[in-house]
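User: Could you check the structure of this?
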Amino acid sequence: MSAILLTALIPLSILFLAIYKDKTSVRKPNILDKDLTNALKGFAAIIVIMVHIPEPEVNPLQDAIGSFAYVAVTFFFFVSAYGTRLSLTKNPDYLKRFWPGRLLALLIPMLLCNVVYFATYHLPTSVHPAAISLLYAVNPYVTVLLCYYLFFYLAGRLAGKLYPAKYLDPVLWCGIIISSSLCYVSELDFTWCYEQWGLIWGLLAFKYKQQFINFISDKGWVKICSLLVISGILGVMYLKFKHIAFWGEYLLKIGLGFSLLLTMFAVLQGWFCENRISRRLGKISYEVYLLHGAMFAAALYLRPANSGVFILYTVALTLIGAAIMRAISTPLIKMGKRLIG
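Assistant: Sure, the predicted structure tokens are below.
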């Protein structure tokens, strides 16, 4: 029971930070605002930690929270697609300077975190061998993003040349659907075949932004309850039919992810307010995602009394480590951009 109560501190802290307002807070009417989505990314990154807790340290509450981790990753992709598409519209020359910033921002933190993995895998509590390949391994999330960025770049450069520019979004949608489908049939679990659909949801949110905002801004309880009921039905159907290839295992999970994502936006729209803490969490969300796996061995090294203590150790160590990685990588990224010109 104590393990569950300690684990409950994580979602309660997230809930508190979601409604806490300080002197730096600005309540914004659009949940797709960059500050708000960055803050949500920080919370989503913490949820991702839950799904990867080692088997001996799991508990029912952690397992329940972790079951929403794929929605959190879907949200990461949603933000990436929405942000790149918005930037392209705002700046016609966006693609000319696309790669330097993207590669440096993705790869420098990843490589720094790889060093931490290599170090923690030498701890006696680690269950993984400390192979040299850890130092240059490419995180699966980074792999998917790089593939999408490459496709986005090529599709953007060819728009208006190989095909009419107005078809850019459909071309991107088709590319993501093909990529996700191929990953699914190839049984490549590390390619996030379900979560990749977050890229499509982000592109659709951009294309139909006003309709999207109008829909989630309507705070009628009938709509909120309807979304919750639909999500519940899809969740039960997925648990019952996930063993059925494609339409059960694949399509139902994608539909459930979309329903939960839409429900989250509808519930948060209008009252979610970022603050100094959530803003900081959002800034280190990428490092939190990259680093959390390395912190399991470190948390075990502290000899936790139960799974709740282990989870708190892991979250605390991950946040501290992510902040340090951010402090180191930020000047390196700026230096790299200056060198590239």
